[in-house]
Amino acid sequence: MASFSLSGALRGLFAKKTIDDDTWDDLEAALIGADFGPALADEVVEELREKVARYRTTDPADLQRMLREGIEERLAAFDTTLTLSDRPAVVLVVGVNGVGKTTTIGKFAKFLRGYGRTVVVGAADTFRAAAVDQLATWAERAGAEIVRPQAAGQDPASVAYQTVEYAKAHGTDIVIIDTAGRLHTKGGLMDELGKIRRVVEKQGPIAEVLLVLDATTGQNGLAQAQAFIEHAGVTGLVLTKLDGSAKGGFVLAVQRQTGLPIKLVGQGEGVGDLTGFTPHVFAQQLVG
Ligand code: GDP
Ligand code: GDP
Ligand code: MG
């Protein structure tokens, strides 16, 4: 859980007796190493330099506190609350292959069940047969219902439609739709997501479109997800695989670059390894 902490790289820095000339280069290197990206790392270092000068402190503990507060402030500038008040509340989960969409849906369904919500998941990734079985396994684990394609390769939009229909017929609170990450062409996938959106919206509004990003892939993963950001009507981000990643700074960089809030964080492959996103807690974990 604490494996994405920056503290490793910063421990030496904050353990020093005093802030000195090396502090700033070391801090910048630690931030870049944690995937803040050069522009943000530079901005954070400059801000802290000014603050340290203004408050005339030489105490590394002050620097640590200011860093933690600066990060929390940046994170808190985004509204990370999930909007799930519609009934049913329909959540579309999108993203490139392998980022953790299906796993996230399983964990998210369990998370919602924990709050007493009823959940149905829709297997609209009909491109691979194994994808449907994988989602079914997760649904069972989470205590959620599932709507599967009636035939292999059924139109994903029709599965999505039937899932919402199921929720309306059964009074299910939350609908979560799994989607494919890749088709023969990118254009095809975006068209397919557009069609899913249209048919779902025939029955009511879409509450959230969550784009899943694998935190270990950093900037590269973000570049791959660009088409989703431009065309899929994304309302929030889910960052997966923050366990075992030293790239916690990606959280800040990604919100800044996309303008989209992070709404959920995945920190493992277990059914309980998903949390909401709380700036205060996250900043504390990251900086120590
Ligand atoms: P660049 O590095 O010069 O491209 O610009 P920035 O990354 O500083 O800013 C890009 C956009 O993000 C601008 O529209 C800013 O208003 C916005 N922005 C900058 N800093 C923050 C921040 O801490 N929180 C939030 N929410 N937005 C910010
Ligand atoms: P999809 O193709 O986007 O649906 O991705 P999957 O849900 O099938 O996940 C791809 C792989 O990533 C699987 O091996 C998952 O167990 C793994 N995975 C997903 N989320 C996490 C996470 O938060 N932490 C770790 N360590 N692995 C994850
Ligand atoms: Mg999948």
The helix count comes to 12
Relevant CATH superfamily of the largest domain: P-loop containing nucleotide triphosphate hydrolases
Low-confidence stretches: none
Strand arrangement, major sheet: 3-2-4-1-5-6-7-8
The beta-strand count equals 8
Largest sheet: 8 strands, mixed
Averaged pLDDT, please?
91
Whole-angstrom Rg: 21 Å
Classify the beta-strand content into a percent band.
5-15%
Report on this structure.
The chain has 288 residues and is an alpha/beta fold. The protein has 2 domains: 6-76, Up-down Bundle (Four Helix Bundle (Hemerythrin (Met), subunit A)), CATH 1.20.120.140; 89-287, P-loop containing nucleotide triphosphate hydrolases (Rossmann fold). The chain contains 12 helices and 8 strands. It has helices at 7-15, 21-33, 38-54, 60-76, 101-114, 129-142, 156-170, 186-201, 218-224, 226-231, 250-258, 279-287, and strands at residues 89-94, 119-123, 145-147, 174-178, 208-214, 236-240, 262-266, 274-276. It has an 8-stranded mixed beta sheet with strand order 3-2-4-1-5-6-7-8, sandwiched between helices. Strand 6, helix 11 (250-258) and strand 7 (262-266) form a beta-alpha-beta unit. The longest helix is centred in the first third of the chain and has 17 residues, at 38-54. It is elongated, with a radius of gyration of 21 Å. The protein starts with 6 loop residues before the first helix and ends with a helix. The model has no long low-confidence stretch (mean pLDDT 91). Magnesium ion binds at residues 101-102, 125, 131, 178.
